[in-house]
Write a structure and sequence with these properties.
The chain is an alpha+beta fold. The chain has helices spanning 4-15, 62-70, 77-82, 96-105, 122-125, 133-146, 149-164, and strands at residues 21-27, 33-39, 87-89, 118-120. Helices cover 42% and strands 12% of the residues.
């Protein structure tokens, strides 16, 4: 898919002003922060490190909506995988602000920091944005208990199935 990056980059530059890539500090393994890469799907704004995207977020560009729905915006996270900061499957990395907030209000939240964050995960294919943070943590604990190569393959296959049938995967 090496052709994908220049094509998406060109489309982003045509669609709106700003950089092609969006980088944001996220919480990684053992609570270590790292810069997570994504294709930029929003207009440049001052809330990107404090406000999570919502379903009909006015900051999302027309192209960005497509990139997010198809999860193409997540493709640059393969660079994070190559750098050893993320894995293919694991808990999705949260903004530093959200990690700090959730750790105070959700029981066992920080257990997720025992695994490398993933591009996709058990919680993403079982509800994504439609479930509470408490349910996500429960699903992540379930993943930790069932974790295996076959389980990861099942999650990857379900991720592709969700994307193909326009359910999206993670954000």
């Amino acid at each position: 898919l090496s052709w994908l990056i220049p094509l998406v980059a060109l489309l982003i530059l045509i669609d709106s002003r700003g950089p092609v890539f969006f980088t944001q500090l996220r919480t990684g393994l053992t609570d270590n922060p790292f810069y997570c890469y994504k294709f930029r799907s929003m207009r440049i704004n001052t809330e990107s490190d404090s406000k999570q995207a919502t379903k009909h977020d006015s900051r999302v560009t027309r192209l960005g909506a497509f990139l997010r729905k198809t999860s193409i915006d997540e493709f640059p996270q393969f660079f994070n995988v190559f750098r050893g900061e993320m894995s293919l499957v694991g808990p999705r990395p949260h903004m530093l602000k959200h990690t700090s907030e959730y750790a105070k209000i959700v029981d066992h939240y920080m257990i997720r920091q025992m695994l490398k964050p993933g591009i996709t995960g058990w919680a993403q294919i079982n509800g994504r944005d439609d479930i509470s943070i408490e349910k996500k943590v429960q699903l992540e604990q379930e993943y930790m208990n069932k974790r295996s190569t076959l389980f990861d393959i099942e999650i990857i296959i379900k991720t592709f199935t969700n994307v193909l049938f326009s359910k999206g995967v993670s954000h």
